[in-house]
Amino acid sequence: MRKLLLFTALSALGLTSAYAQAETAGAATTDAVLDVKFMIDNLWILVSAALVFIMHLGFASVEAGMCQRKNTVNIMFKNVFIVCIGAVGYMLWGFNAMYPSDWAISDVFAVGSGLTGAATDAEASRFYLSESGEAAYTIWSDFIFQAMFAATAATIVSGAVAERVKLTSFMIYATILVTFLYPVTGSWEWGTGWLDKKDFADFAGSSLVHAFGGFAALAAVIVLGPRKGKFTKDGIKPILPSNLPLANIGVFLLFLGWFGFNGGSVLSADAAGVSFVFVTTAMAGFTGGLGAIATSWIVLKKPDLSMALNGMLAGLVGITAGADTIPPYAALAVGSIAGVIVVLSVTFFDKIKIDDPVGAISVHGVCGIWGTLCVAIFGTTEGVTFGVQLLGTLSISAFAFITSFAVFYAIKLIMGVRVDEQEEHEGLDVAEHGSPAYNDSTP
Amino acid sequence: MRKLLLFTALSALGLTSAYAQAETAGAATTDAVLDVKFMIDNLWILVSAALVFIMHLGFASVEAGMCQRKNTVNIMFKNVFIVCIGAVGYMLWGFNAMYPSDWAISDVFAVGSGLTGAATDAEASRFYLSESGEAAYTIWSDFIFQAMFAATAATIVSGAVAERVKLTSFMIYATILVTFLYPVTGSWEWGTGWLDKKDFADFAGSSLVHAFGGFAALAAVIVLGPRKGKFTKDGIKPILPSNLPLANIGVFLLFLGWFGFNGGSVLSADAAGVSFVFVTTAMAGFTGGLGAIATSWIVLKKPDLSMALNGMLAGLVGITAGADTIPPYAALAVGSIAGVIVVLSVTFFDKIKIDDPVGAISVHGVCGIWGTLCVAIFGTTEGVTFGVQLLGTLSISAFAFITSFAVFYAIKLIMGVRVDEQEEHEGLDVAEHGSPAYNDSTP
Amino acid sequence: MRKLLLFTALSALGLTSAYAQAETAGAATTDAVLDVKFMIDNLWILVSAALVFIMHLGFASVEAGMCQRKNTVNIMFKNVFIVCIGAVGYMLWGFNAMYPSDWAISDVFAVGSGLTGAATDAEASRFYLSESGEAAYTIWSDFIFQAMFAATAATIVSGAVAERVKLTSFMIYATILVTFLYPVTGSWEWGTGWLDKKDFADFAGSSLVHAFGGFAALAAVIVLGPRKGKFTKDGIKPILPSNLPLANIGVFLLFLGWFGFNGGSVLSADAAGVSFVFVTTAMAGFTGGLGAIATSWIVLKKPDLSMALNGMLAGLVGITAGADTIPPYAALAVGSIAGVIVVLSVTFFDKIKIDDPVGAISVHGVCGIWGTLCVAIFGTTEGVTFGVQLLGTLSISAFAFITSFAVFYAIKLIMGVRVDEQEEHEGLDVAEHGSPAYNDSTP
User: Fold this and answer.
1) By CB atoms within 10 Å of each CB, which of A137, B2, C166, C250 scores lowest?
2) Does A283 map to a domain?
3) Does B248 contact A76 at a Cβ distance shorter than 8 Å?
4) d(Cα B280, Cα C432) in Å, to the nearest integer?
5) Average pLDDT over residues B384-403
6) pLDDT in tens, chain C (443 residues)
7) End-to-end CA distance of chain B
8) C327 contacts on B by Cβ (under 8 Å)
9) Which of A26, A50, A140 is opposite residue B26, by nearest beta carbon?
10) Which residue has the higher pLDDT, A263 or C382?
């Protein structure tokens, strides 16, 4: 009777099927607890996916704000396209290539495919539930969270090539990068590939997402060349940002999204885990800002807002690999040093005439490597070594650089990657899109 | 003894009262599990309410960005007013009219009233708890989530009538629309009225919110007439958007809010349910963007940012009725086709000289109908038929159109609905508000 | 056997250690329920922390939008610095000074220190778990939520002193304010100090955060003096806001963040508690907007967007002290009256030549006092008296005013607090940062 009542109550929760074999009220209750835990774990992954989604508005805004007014529409158009095609490509190929059930080349490369089976059938298998009851989220939550991540890699490149890249060429390049290249290195670690087997540690992607994007960007920028008028025989001509409040909005939204990017990477709503990650993530971001403010004040002799903003991002990229293991006080060091690095790195790339309008190579590439090494320097995880961290981050960066270079160079040979000088001068908004971003000519 | 300890532990959770009648420790534990489930379900509704709230910033930003600079303050003022009056009106009348305990005309019309009883008394009945233990949220969560929804209907209209509507007339109209008209069609389906009894399916409101708003907008635009200078004897004169980064911010915030709009409409934190809805919602939004990019490139011969943005919204509107039942792959089709439809529809309304500055009629009205039909075309729910879906969406759209027309026309007769030509030329910001949106005249 | 199986299942949840002493399956299940409840409570605090974080973007945007174009970079730079230094200062001193384990002066002042013990050691004591099992969040969640709060106090000041304050002086002042002064009054109530012992009620900080910030701002403005050209012998010269869409974004983000600011202050995910707070908070914000719209229309003879926006904020500040106890209908009154107050207060401060470019003193200071009194006027909590509420809010405001005055005046004597007239005329962006916020000079 008691048992019957329990089943009735649990049926009301829509959880009947799981209880068919339950033999006692106690067991049923335990299963019910597991189910509620499953709900909260899953919900946090979904909220995190929404937070990572808003990073795409962050990227669009910071890139548009940091670049010239005349290229604003073009930048935003690219960002809209990337997040759209990135998610679709990830659904049709990338997800299964990154988390392979079969490898084409063992631990190195897997063939992707569309979401299959359970993922497309609401009835057959609603839960992504292992036999052991450890499931923390459904396959749909897993997919949508990872899809939001995937698109960020191509977005990082879009900032670096802004203001002179040919739209259609970039669209082809970005589609290949996000759909086919990003999942390869992803599978090495998160898909239990060769780096995972070496105990390489990259919690939320300092290397797998940020260094990947940053070094793909470096290759693309080398193929593309600098903006006209940036490097003259009279020295480097600064090209001023068009809209710093927009860039400010972008960076704060990226920071907000990072709570999902890193916090969601706990892959459950574990209280200690997620709160620890929130603290390390936020404190690294804040000290990144302070580090860059101090460094730019000393080096550039002024309190530079762009650098302060990039410093926050640098700190966030820096902590991303070890947000789960680096103690809070060490996170202050990780962030501060990332803030110093990003200012020096931006200055360095300017000096060697690598033209990166938003500092993406420094923020994501250089600080991505820094962050990956920090897991060995500051982290406390057994088995993590500086050597493997270095090997991993360089392997991923090298793969990103080489494949990005190859693809972008091939596109250059076939159809060109750069707008003509007249279009660049005029601005891509009018030249490519027939519409300026701002229209002020009102009475 | 065991039992006593359990009660002590549960008291610590502040959940004592529910356990007064519990006869065994097992039963108490089961109730405790139900209570924790209740907490998470309820929390998700609240987070969703916050997400839908931010859609109002999305609407304000996209409308201001798409219109002319000289009318920016006016647009934002209207949006601030709508969300404020919408929530207050919903509290004093709409909520109880939409979810009636008594009908004035059976299954068709109910008289509203202020929140009563439990909702206003923190002690008497803290929970919106049915006897069966199925409760997923408190009455306050229910109210605030629905209140945030309600205000969106009037906001949709505000974009379509922008740049020439008289402020006070619109304020009266919007108050009537959101408080008295929106709950009527709402009650037909979500208030268990006649459409619900016919197995009409509209999960989160492709018809009840979006088509309602879109066709109310169409009526208002017809009463109001086009902006001066838009349709000339030399053809259609495009009026350029004033601030596309602002519009971009608006659309991405709307997209973000849609995770709460659709995700919260699951009305619980059910893992499979919410994650399924996240995937269908996001993928339809993304393919909507791609569909509109492709279509506008072919039709308008350029990669149009405004169309890409409206395409994402169109895809989101399209999936809203069936986000819970349309399989993920079909969601790609729903979104893509919505993206095509919105471009053609915007072009069509321009051709027949219906002047809708932001494309609201196409995005919300036309794609709202499309989405409602998709539940029958792509969905898998037993009992849902194309005929009833068509009947439902046309009934709702017709009700919105006719009542909106009547109210707005009556206001036109009484006090006028349009600013005079001089004010329209000068811009409503200075004419109605005495303040331009941007002041650049600094040294 | 049964028991063994249960332990196995619970081990799968990673919750083994807590169960070592559990003697029966029933007890283990009850503990598992408590653990899941702990997860959801904790998660809500973290999500709230993220929501409060985004308020810093809100402040930056509203302040930049309300001020002149030429001071935009300076305003945003200050806001970035404040949130960074605020969190670091709170980690190194403020958190432990505000929630003291030992008092230096009993119930009045405690010495701070860095996060210690459990907070820095991931292994030793992962949970902030009291013996009674009542814990709702980890110490890290507690810290990061409170750290996000702390920085808001200094941010309130930054708006009031905008457009003429010397950057380095403000940076020193803000660091002292947020690190050393804010935790003192915080400890009086939330740290179980003398006001807490008197049954003073300030749920989420109408006094402790907002009146504190508002009256610190008043002192700073008095020391600093008005902007040149604001008060002339020909009367008050309005200085127009540079970017109202940016201000609109800022206010809506603040409103969004307030769901975490007040909602998170429930300190658990209690369904009735959080949903009640959502309703009172939102309705007070909405009626604040309506109250200010009506009042400004009557007083200023125009529908003023800035006032509508400040009215929403005023309503939110007004409900903050009593969001947990003031009934929903009374919240309409709290908000409406706050909306009236803020318009009259802004006008009043203008008249007595206190120059506050964003109305921070009125919104946060005056309405902070109003809100604190509302707990006695409209609230239903036993033990709360008008007398103690008045005593508490005046004590906090007086402490903020006096210490802010002393610190800022000392800085004025030592190094000056104001830029020179030439810099003020030119704008701080170019003068202090060498970079304008907007660069439009494209072909």
Assistant:
1) B2
2) yes
3) yes
4) 50
5) 98
6) 233 333 333 333 333 333 333 345 667 777 888 889 999 999 999 999 999 999 999 999 999 999 999 999 999 999 999 999 999 999 999 999 999 888 999 999 999 888 765 555 544 334 444 334 557 888 899 999 999 999 898 899 999 999 999 999 999 999 999 999 999 999 999 999 999 999 999 999 999 999 999 999 999 999 999 999 999 999 999 899 999 999 999 999 999 999 999 999 999 999 989 999 999 999 999 999 999 999 999 999 999 999 999 999 999 999 999 999 999 999 999 999 999 999 999 999 999 999 999 999 999 999 999 999 999 999 888 899 999 999 999 999 999 999 999 999 999 999 999 999 999 999 999 999 998 999 875 44
7) 80
8) 120-122
9) A26
10) A263
For C374, the token pair is: 């509302």
Does the distance separating the beta carbons of B436 and C240 come in below 8 Å?
A: yes
What is the C-alpha to C-alpha distance for residues A97 and B348, in angstroms, rounded to an integer?
Answer: 43
More confident site: C137 or B62: B62
Q: How many whole angstroms separate alpha carbon B349 and alpha carbon B101?
A: 41
Nearest CB neighbour to A271, from listed C12, C42, C54: C42
Residues in chain B with CB shorter than 8 Å from the CB of A39 are 37, 40, 269-271
Q: Which residue of B has its CA nearest to C291?
A: B84
Q: Could you list the residue range(s) of the whole structural domain that residue C60 is in?
A: 26-433
A vs B, Cβ pairs < 8 A, gives 207
- Beta-carbon pairs below 8 A across chains B and C: 205
Whether A17 is covered by a domain: the verdict is: no
On whether residue B117 sits in a domain, the answer given is yes
Q: Do A289 and C84 touch (CB under 8 A)?
A: yes
- Tokens at C35, concatenated: 């653990």
Among A134, A243, A252, A262, pick the best mutation site for testing chain C contact (most C Cβ within 10 A): A252
Which of A39, A254, A279, A296 would you mutate first to test chain C, the one with the most C CBs within 10 A?
A279
The reply to whether residue B26 touches residue C26, judged by beta carbons under 8 angstroms, is yes
Please judge whether C302 and B442 are an interchain contact, meaning their C-beta atoms are less than 8 angstroms apart.
no
Q: Name the residue facing C50 among A37, A243, A256 (closest C-beta).
A: A256
For residue B62, what is the nearest residue in chain C, using CA coordinates?
A: C245
CB contact under 8 A, A278 and C46: yes
Q: Which residues of A touch B283 (CB under 8 A)?
A: 87-88, 91
CB contact under 8 A, B127 and C272: yes
Measured between alpha carbons, how far is A312 from A335 in angstroms, rounded to an integer? 8
Average pLDDT of the residues in A2-25: 36
Is residue C443 included in any domain, yes or no? no
The chains found to touch B (3+ Cβ pairs under 8 angstroms) are A, C
Q: The domain that contains B348 carries what CATH number? A: 1.10.3430.10
Please determine, for the modelled complex, whether the ipTM score is greater than 0.90: yes
Per-residue pLDDT at A154 exceeds 90 = no
List the beta bridge partners of residue B109: B105
Inter-chain touch A51–C46, beta carbons under 8 Å = no
A89 chain-B contacts, CB cut-off 8 A: none
Give the total number of structural domains in chain B. 1
Chain C residue closest to A132 (CA)? Answer: C12
